[in-house]
Each structure stands twice: as structure tokens, then as C-alpha cells.
Amino acid sequence: MPSATTPDANLPIFDFSRFQNSDQQERKEASKEIVQAFKTFGFIYIINYGISQEKIKDLFYWSAKFHELPDEVRNSPELLRPEPVPGATGYIARGFSPLGREKISQDTFDDQSLKALRQVQDAKEFFDMGPEAGVPAVREPNRWPSEDVLPGFKEYFQTFYTEGNELSLEIQRCLALGLDLDEEFFTNFHQDADNLLRLIHYPAVERKAIRMGEKARIPAHTDFGTLTMLFQDSVGGLEVADPKNPQEYISATPIEGAAIVNIGDFLKRWTNDILKSNFHRVVEPPAELELADGNELAKERYSIPYFVQADRNKTIGCITSLEKNAEPKYPPISAQEYLNMRTFATYKL
Ligand SMILES: O=C(O)CCC(=O)C(=O)O
Ligand SMILES: [Fe+2]
Question: Which residues form the Fe2OG dioxygenase domain (predicted)?
Fold first, then answer.
């Protein structure tokens, strides 16, 4: 499969097996093309990325199973995500966040502006999980549903979490090769697998409420980690800012067998703004799929982002070797400091 923008997709699609299963020259070429697409769009689709479509189907099966649990179970103290503790220096997401709990914000950190943003609820609910073991300082226990409630859920996600992490390391190797860095350059900063796997459910919602700006699925934002791998169902609604005209958005249509990969702000900063973290949002699904039967409710939607994050205790400085005579655009920062700054703005009440 050639790496190119195809007529049915507005973003480039790459066959990732060209990087994973080829000789060195093909690997290098694929990585260069992928890096070029990330410089332009910040978003790509990948196919043949080494996780079977069966497993991806199971991913959505388990997410639906979780969100079909009665509210009193999802909101029980064992599953509900704890509130941020005032004055805490770190906050790690685990467990269930009901509708309206998170408000995506962009470059807004003061209390008053954050309060104003919160007038429009993000109509999504989600379940977060992270690694099971590792550096104690940055670990929060996962808040698994018990085996009585959802037998097999925990086991499935423990396995998927690891497979997702392995894929993320491969993507990091691809990026490093494409940028002419040592292949393990980025993976050396991602040894703790301190990622976040999120099962998002957007319940059916009145189309009018979204269109009138009374509710949002997810307003325009950039992701803030290293990179995100995103799996979505077939409903649609995800849009990415058009690099040629950033006020306009292009549809990141669901494509069978493809996952989306996008660059986060942390990696943008790290690469001295060479790799792009692009704005994206989730709007109502395309009308032609829905209004035919007079449906005024936007269909429910499931998506599963896997947010990849660097080891909290490691500090990154801008890589200036990617451009001739470049000066660092930002001072060095630790992953912990950076992620705290961003998560606190997102969850402030
Ligand atoms: O639901 C989606 O397709 C995108 C979700 C997203 O952008 C996010 O959670 O950061
Ligand atoms: Fe996002």
C-alpha cells in the first residue's frame, strides 16, 4: 500500500508494516515519509500496525460493556475517579469520570477563564487506566471493576495496555529514524510506560444542543503528551484543523482497519516545534448518516485514545539539531512539571 493521501481520506494513510517488517532502506524511507506528514498535518492514519483487528473489535466490545454498567456501579467509590486534592503537586487519572467532569481547555490557566469555559459541558464520560506496576512515586492504582461485575475486563486491558505501549515505542523509533536521531532517542525517555488508556463514551445528544454551542463533544484542543494513538468506532465526528487554513477543519473519517496517530504538545516542544501538534475537535456526526431517518439525536459514539507520556522524572530540552543554526525555543522542563501544568487546568473545578 503506498503512503499517500487517498481520495476517501483527508489525512495521509501509512502502512506501518513498511517500517516494522522491511529492510533498512525501506524502513528509512517509510520513517521519512511519516515524519514529513507529522510536520505538515500532525495527524496520520496507520494500517497494519501489528495489533489485530480482532483485538480492536474486542476493545470496543469491552468499552461498551463498561459504559453499559448501571450508573450506581460506575459511580461507586471503587470506580469513581477521585477529585483532585487542593494543593497537590500531581494528579493522575484513574477510574470513571462522569459527564461534565472534564473540560478540555487550551492555553487557559486562570480560575476565572476556566470557570467561563465550563459553562459549556463536554458531553462525554470515560474510564481511565494506566500501568499496573512501576515507579511508585508516579503510580496511582487502577480502579478496576471487580471480576463479579465485569469478568475478563481487567485481563483484557492489562494485555492491551502492554501491546499499546509496544506499538507506541515502535512509533517513537520510526519518528527518531525519520528525524535522523538515534532510533532509541525517544524510547529512552519512555521506559516507565506511564501512559493513559481512556475509554470514551459520548452518549446520544440533541444535535441542536451541539450546533447551538450549548454542549460540546470535545472542543478544539491539542493533546499534551508525547503522542496519541486513537481508535474510533464508525460513527464519526472527529475533525482536524486544515494545515492550509487552520480556521477550517477537515474530517478524520473513521477508516476500517486504521488507527489515528497524532503528535502531542510535549513532543512538539521537545522537537523545537518541528513536529506539529495539531488542533482537533469532536463535533456532531455527519448529518447524511443520521437525518435520513429524521433522527434529531446525534448517535452515541465510542473512541479510545491511548495517550503516551514520558517518564515523569526525566527532563527534556529542545532538540536543536533538527534544523540548521536553531536556538531552543523553550527552556528544559520535566515531564512531571509539564503534565501537571496541563492536567490541573483540565480538571480544575
Ligand atoms: O474522541 C475522539 O475521537 C478524540 C478524543 C480526543 O481528542 C481527546 O480525548 O483528546
Ligand atoms: Fe485530543
Answer: 192-310
Q: What is the pLDDT of residues 257-290, one digit of tens each?
A: 999 999 999 999 999 999 999 999 999 887 655 5
The DSSP annotation for 188-257 comes to GG--S---EEEEEEE--EEHHHHHTTSEESEEEE---SSEEEEEE-SS--EEEEETTEEEEEEE----TT
Q: Report CA(26)–ligand 1 centroid distance (Å).
A: 32
Domains along the chain with CATH numbers: 13-347 (2.60.120.330)
The C-alpha cell at 290 is: 443520521
> Which ligand sits nearest to residue 239's alpha carbon?
1
pTM for the complete prediction? 0.91
| The 245-251 sheet, strands edge to edge | 218-221, 280-282, 238-242, 245-251
Q: What is the ipTM of this complex?
A: 0.99
Alpha-carbon torsion, ordered 205, 65, 47, 284, to 10 deg: 0
